[in-house]
Amino acid sequence: MSTTATRTIQHRIAGEETSGSSTRTSVVWDPATGRPQAEVVLAEPADVDAAVAAAKAAFPAWSETSITRRTKIMFAFRNLVDAHIDELAKLVAAEHGKVVEDAKGEIIRGMEVVEYACGIPQLLKGEYSDLISSDVDSFSYRQPLGVCAGITPFNFPVMVPMWMHPMAIATGNTFVLKPSERDPSASNRIAELYAEAGLPEGVFNVVHGDKTAVDALLDHPDVAAVSFVGSTPIARYIHERASANGKRVQALGGAKNHAIVLPDADLDFAADQLTAAGFGSAGQRCMAIAVVVAVGDAADPLVEKLRERAQRIKVGPGLDPSSEMGPVVTPEARERICSYIEGGVKAGATAVVDGRDLDVDGGGFFVGPTLFDNVDTDMEIYKDEIFGPVLGVMRVGTLDEAIDLVNANSYANGTAIFTTNGSAARIFQRRIEVGMVGINVPIPVPMAFHTFGGWKSSLFGERGVHGPDGVRFYTRGKVVTARWPKDAAVAAAQLHFPTAS
Predict the structure, then answer these.
(1) Which of 118, 148, 286, 338 is catalytic?
(2) CA dihedral (251, 256, 262, 266) positive or negative
(3) CATH number at residue 381
């Protein structure tokens, strides 16, 4: 660890910051300067044990806490997050690299899930059937699972965890969060805000770490459910290992999101939207547009408009108010992205804009917006999730060809179409084999009252996150059949299978 790091980021377990038994640390970089700014402790299995034990100890009382009290705490937490949005956004920008306004956007989208969780009294309503038989009633309701764990990526250090823990906690569970070790500070601050909102100690805990911590959570007998967002290979691993250990799992994987642009589309509007969707947050979004499928005569003018816009983007430090796009998160990320750009050039794609030579004062892990034309399906820049500011344009002749191209891809997280033709849009939305669809909306992330989740290799498990699936994932149903007979003789037991009477 470099001696230039000035602080150590610790776990937060049962309301206290602690290094526990951790003996290993990892660098937290300043992506804008390329220098270490902190170190984060990496959990050993004993630290995970401590966090799970704290959550398990808090579960009986929290699960029996009135739904009204839980709701009041969620309202208080939401208001505290809103009051500290500038502080949280700067924490995110400093460690992730995204610009402050982008960081604010993710926090606002996260708060929408908290607001949805504030309606948990309505969301947890069961069903009641009166007199299903003589003196017999039946009713159903949902109960929490126990200790739930969240394993989240670096790209949205506030929003993605908020897809999970507000729903888990509001439904009566306790929670252990293992955020990315690349930008860990926001998670600790969220834990402090929960405590300030009145959440009892142990209900929300944070352990920092790497694969050691992840495996300890996946194997822990007292963890009932695991939520994950990250790459497809890791999502598959999480799903298989946690499922083998008898846990409920939702694991969201990678993406290669396509946007189809028809010749009738407003090309200026489409180019503006695609530029923002492709290069915002330096392309480090699972819902970023990575591939533009230009149909017919749309291709030439669209590529030119995308070129003009990519070259105008102001790239700089995330904390600089004039910056529109910040650096990528680590030196390894920059090296990986640049190697993909090099590979695209060698494979024969046309580098309309090449971001490798971008020079930003102060160093840092900067890659400029990169635009490729004439991409085909055999190229690595098409097949792999680059997770950087690289936008590829493919050319096809018809809408049918475009739909077939998207449907042939193994990823199926999000997709979009730009058109002024309602019939074409309806054909697209019905035929496309992707979980989240935008019509003239390039990043179709649903609001909190709908479920976020893709298809195919973009989701492992039955449920997506937040919305109705969030309630169902973090609870299990119970059906009660009750009899209070007036006459014991009438209610005499029978040996044959019971039927209504």
Answers:
(1) 286
(2) positive
(3) 3.40.309.10
Residue 497 lies inside a defined structural domain of this protein? no
Average pLDDT in the chain: 95
Whether residue 150 is found in the same domain as residue 216: yes
Asked if residue 263 and residue 245 are part of one domain, the reply reads no
CA distance 55 to 205: 7
pTM of the model: 0.94
Percent helix, strand and coil across the chain, each rounded to 5? 40, 25, 35
Given a cut of 90, whether residue 490 has pLDDT beyond it is no
Looking at the structure, tell me whether residues 333 and 375 fall in a common domain: yes
**Among positive and negative, which fits the CA dihedral 52, 234, 240, 408?**
positive
Looking at residue 91, its pLDDT comes to 98
Residues 383 and 321 in one domain: yes
Domain count, the chain: 2
47-56, 304-313, 478-487: which range is least confident on average? 478-487
Measured CA to CA, the distance from residue 290 to residue 5 in angstroms comes to 35
- For residues 77, 79, 85, 88, the Cα torsion angle rounded to the nearest 10 degrees is -10
- Whether 46 and 114 map to the same domain: the answer is yes
Nearest to 282 by CA among 396, 154, 193, 433: 154
In a domain, 351, yes or no: yes
Q: Measured on CA atoms in the order 338, 344, 345, 350, is the torsion positive or negative?
A: negative
Identify whether the C-beta of residue 143 lies closer than 8 Å to the C-beta of residue 476: yes
Q: Residue 488: is its pLDDT beyond 70?
A: no
Does 484 map to a domain? no
User: 265 and 249 in one domain?
Assistant: no
pLDDT tens digit string along 378-404?
999 999 999 999 999 999 999 999 999
Are residues 192 and 180 both part of a single domain?
A: yes
Catalytic annotation on 286? yes
Contact 120, 468 (CB under 8 A): no
Amino acid at 66: S
Write out pLDDT tens, residues 59-71.
999 999 999 999 9
Q: Which residue has the tokens 């990496």?
A: 42
* 296 in the same domain as 217: no
Q: Could you say which DSSP state residue 465 is in?
A: B
Q: Cα 426–429–433 angle (5° rounding)? A: 150
Q: Are 229 and 252 in contact (CB under 8 A)?
A: yes
SS3 of 226, please?
strand
Host domain of residue 294: 257-439
Closest CA to 61 of 189, 203, 182: 203
Is pLDDT above 60 for 2? no
